[in-house]
Structures are given as C-alpha cells and as structure tokens.
Amino acid sequence: MAKITFSNSNNEFYQSLKASVDEYFTKNKIRKTGDWRLYSKTIILVSTAVTMYSLLMIVPLTYWVAMLCVFILGITLASIGFGVMHDANHGSYSTKQKLNDFLGLSLNALGANAYFWKQKHNIIHHTYTNVDGIDDDIAKSPIIRQCESQKWVPAHKIQYLYLLPVYALSTIFWIFIMDFTKYFSRKIYTTDAWKMSTKNHIIFWATKICYIIFYMILPITVWGFLPWLVGFLTLNAVMGLILSLVFQLAHVVENTEFEHVPLDATKHIETAWAEHQIKTTANFAMGNKVISWFVGGLNYQIEHHLFPRVSHVHYPAISKIVMEKCAEYNLPYNKYDTMSEAVASHFRVMKSLGRKPEQAMAQVKAA
After folding, report:
1. Are 246 and 82 in contact (CB under 8 A)?
2. What domain count does the chain have?
3. What pLDDT, on the 0 to 100 scale, is given for residue 154?
4. Residues of the domain holding 165
5. 268, β-bridge pairs
6. How far apart are the first and last CA of the chain?
7. d(Cα 267, Cα 276) in Å, to the nearest integer?
8. Which of 23, 33, 130, 324 is the most buried (most CB within 10 A)?
C-alpha cells in the first residue's frame, strides 16, 4: 500500500485550537458527546422510518401515496446515516461505548456494514483526506474523475452530465458490490483490511440477510415484483443522491486541495495533519439550521475533521473558535453560504476535471 507522513514540526495551530475548544467545553460544563438535541433527533428519525415502513407494509395505499412514503423513508434513512450512525460510529454519540456500537449498527439496517465503514472512514479517510491513492472516498475512477492525478478517460468529458445517475445508484453499489468486494478481498481500496472477528463475520452476513428479507422479500410479497422494484430504486435513488452530494460537498469543491501518492510509494507532506484537514475540507450552509439538522451537522465538515469525536450538535458553537484560529494562523477556512452554492462549485470542479489534461493545461496557460 501507499504510505504518507505529515510534518510534526508545526503543530502550534492545532495545539492552540484544541486548548481553546477544550476550554469551551470545560467553561460551559458540557460533554463533547451528544445531548438532548441528538437524542430527540434519534427518536424522531427512527420513529418516522418505522412509521413509513409500516405504512408501506401494512396499510393499503394508492400508488402515489406509497411513493410519497418511499420518498420520505429515503430522506429519513439518509438523515439517520448522517445524524445517528455517523456520531455513533465515531464514538461521539454517547460516553457509553456499547450504546455507540449498537446505534452504529443503524448503518447495517440501511444495508451497508458498520465494521468496514469504521475502517474506511474513521481511519483511512480522516487520516488521509483527499489523498489520491489511499482515500477510498475519492476512489471512483474510472467512472468519475475526482482529482487531477487520476487517470482521464474520454467518458469524463461528460461526467458532469451523468453525475446524478451515478450518485443515485451509489447505495445499491455500496450494499451489493463494494461491501462484498471489501469482505472477500480483505482490502479497502489500497489498504489491507483489518482482521475481522467471528462476531463481525456473523454481523456481516446476518444483517445482509435481514436487509434482503426486509427490503426485498417482504415488500415483493406485499406489492409484487414490479411495484417493489420501482419503490426500491426510488428509495435508493433518494438515499444515494443525498448521501453522495453531502459527502462530495465536503471535499470535492473549489479551493479544497488534493495530494497524490502512487501505489507502494511513500510521500511526506510538509504540513501538519490538522492543516491538511483545513486545506482539504469545506463547509456549507452553516447558517441554515434545517439543513444542519437533516445532514447531522456535516455541513460543518471542517470542525468534524478536526474533532471527529465531538458530537455534531456542538459544531456550530466551536466553528466560531475554529474560524478565529484559522484567521490567527493565516489558514484558509473554505465555506459556502448556501448549499446551492456548494453544489454549483462541485459541478464546476467535476466539469473541469472532465477536460482532457492537455486541454485543461492549455486553458490554464492561456488564462
């Protein structure tokens, strides 16, 4: 696997920032984990998901009402992924690890696997953010090209036109292809996967079987094959679009930086880890409380990457501290005022990356 190291000579920024954030929690006598805001959100989201599923399975519904329920269920499941699963699997939901582990399995209820997600997201992505060759979150080539170091193919000329269909299919690929690829290859992109315990093997297969039963067999029994297929594809399209866009807006937008390390090579980055997180990450719609609620605070991605074990309910408060420290140490703080601005930036980046490298270089020189 590729290896990358960060400079240890300039940690003053993060040390100062961490001290200020710690002081905030100490002064206000609050824990870094979740509070009533997170617990109430969990109750609302899980109750909504159970209600929508029960309506679809038990109550005779017209086609359009059923599709509305499917649409609401898709949004709710995505929000559970952002606002419940994400905190739990980072260990920031509760001070009780057993509760974190239990709620982290909500990802398995969505069809994916919490064990692999922790390895690929918590360890690989959060350490090597936007490092092409290691970060699995930007390893979608050759389907889409997400940074300049990735190989260009002619299809990328129109990738900005087929991005949404790709994103819409992402959860289906994740559930039925990528999880199994990781399981049988024992590898997460270029990183050897950690050895799974017997318990994790059992959870992997048991929850995959449960997914097939609850999302496929039972709905087909109730609705028939074709109506189920339409509903299943709609559910995953809603989930896939929301999940993909929110995560892409965090890292693949204008002004965020990328690194590249070839396979089996070693690279040293002349910045500290915290500065790397600042430069490779962006926030959006920080003033929109509705968006913040539904995306589990992941519109405050900078704060999340710097303090992944702090619950997202605290990000708006500590973002003020982070912005002040970035200004003090002359570091960028990438942000977009609205979600639509961030989406537009993402599409501009993807359109730019779709140009053939020689053509893109010529345009840069001409400018």
Report:
1. yes
2. 1
3. 95
4. 3-366
5. 5
6. 38
7. 14
8. 130
The sign of the CA dihedral 292, 295, 296, 302 is negative
Q: How far apart are CA 296 and CA 3, in angstroms?
A: 31
Which residue is listed with tokens 């345009």?
Answer: 363
Query: What local confidence, expressed as pLDDT, does residue 364 receive?
Result: 44
DSSP state of 155: G
Low-confidence spans in the chain with pLDDT less than 50: 364-367
* pLDDT for position 360: 54
Q: What is the pLDDT of residue 189?
A: 77
The first and second tokens of residue 209, run together, are 């079987």
Helix (H) or strand (E) holding 187: strand 187-188
Global pTM? 0.92
Q: How far is CA 24 from the centre of its chain?
A: 27
Rounded Cα distance, 11 and 13, in Å: 6
Beta strands 283-284 and 187-188: pairing type?
A: unpaired
Q: Is residue 191 within a helix (H) or strand (E), and if so which, with residue range? A: strand 191-192
